[in-house]
Amino acid sequence: MRTPFTHLRRLLLANIACVLGAAALNYVVDPLQLFRPSYLVAAFYSEDTRVQNAGLIRSQSFDTAFMGTSLAIHFRQSEIDRALGVRSLKLAMTGSNSRQQAFVLEQAIERGAKRVIWAMDDFIFIDAADIEADPYLSVDLYRRTARGIGSYLFSAAMAKESVFALLRSVASLREPLTRAAPYLPLRFALSDVDDIYALPRDFDVASGYNAQRALAAFAYITAPARSRFLGEGYGYDAMVRHFECDALGLITRHPDVTFDIYFPPYSILQFVAMRDASPETLKIVTDLTARIAQVLTQLPNVRLHDFRAIKEVTHDLGNYSDVIHHSPVIDAKVLKWLASGEYRVDPKAPLAPLNELKAQVAAYRIGH
């Protein structure tokens, strides 16, 4: 007669076998491509960029890293490559802060990036958790520490992704499962790295980006009940500190890397909203970006570009889905401007674009 202990031991051994089997499966399939570029099964990618970037840095070939927040998330790597003549890796992360961005860029530079294109909006410098304690970005996964590798290999969620990856490698299942992947409970559903957090190629730009949406967003954020949020997280001293530690620290540690940094072309409504509903926030933003411009333009490995006062773009509200996010049409213009250097800030007059922006903001009137 079998004792309860015998059953318990068998159950324990079965559980251990399942866990080790899942770890072996994750290592062999490697859905994140953390250990090697995918070779056993077709590669698939996730829009969870804070995780996916760890694998992209390890598996992709690149000489240029492209970083930003949601303002830079819809660029396609192929478009960046064509416009700038580089081999790029898009690492933009929605809602990311300067600590996260600098950390991820550091990993990309260590893997060979010799150029960084960085969409540097003011909001990234708000105060937040130290990178070592960041709950949203696993530094151990990027560093491939024992803890990071263990959490990856022994993840049941990753084992599910590995199983689906194997199923998609079956010829008769490849096409239907690839088509169904976006609708299945999968994190790795994109078959083309170029599609990571990019708008669909048939996206209706006119319906997603138009003056009605921009004005509605302006009315929403300036309403008395919500206008206090315009300045949430903004504090000049803390933001300068993070700029100096995260951005400036990264740049000065890597004098052999070229940094093309640009201030994104917010719509004029973003600054008018601050002017009308939170003038103290507007002062913080302008003072901060003045400091950034004065410092960065003096560094030999930095080219600073300021796109915020390009009136034909920023005053045309049809280019925006809200007060800051611009359309793919403007994405293309940004790449063209970066290639030409047309709006590069003159080191001899680092505040000239900012002064032009201030004048535009002061003069702008809604509906005129």
Key features of this structure:
368 residues; alpha/beta; five-stranded parallel β-sheet; two-stranded antiparallel ribbon
Describe the structure.
By secondary structure, the protein is an alpha/beta fold. The protein has helices spanning 4-29, 49-59, 77-84, 98-110, 139-143, 146-153, 156-168, 171-180, 205-208, 211-222, 236-253, 268-277, 279-296, 311-314, 328-340, 352-363, and strands spanning 45-46, 64-67, 88-90, 115-119, 188-190, 258-263, 302-306. It has a 5-stranded parallel β-sheet with strand order 3-2-4-6-7, with helices on both faces. 39% of the residues are buried. The model has no long low-confidence stretch (mean pLDDT 93).
How does the SSE layout of this entry go?
Layout: H1 4-29, E1 45-46, H2 49-59, E2 64-67, H3 77-84, E3 88-90, H4 98-110, E4 115-119, H5 139-143, H6 146-153, H7 156-168, H8 171-180, E5 188-190, H9 205-208, H10 211-222, H11 236-253, E6 258-263, H12 268-277, H13 279-296, E7 302-306, H14 311-314, H15 328-340, H16 352-363
Parallel strand pairs: 2-3, 2-4, 4-6, 6-7
Antiparallel strand pairs: 1-5
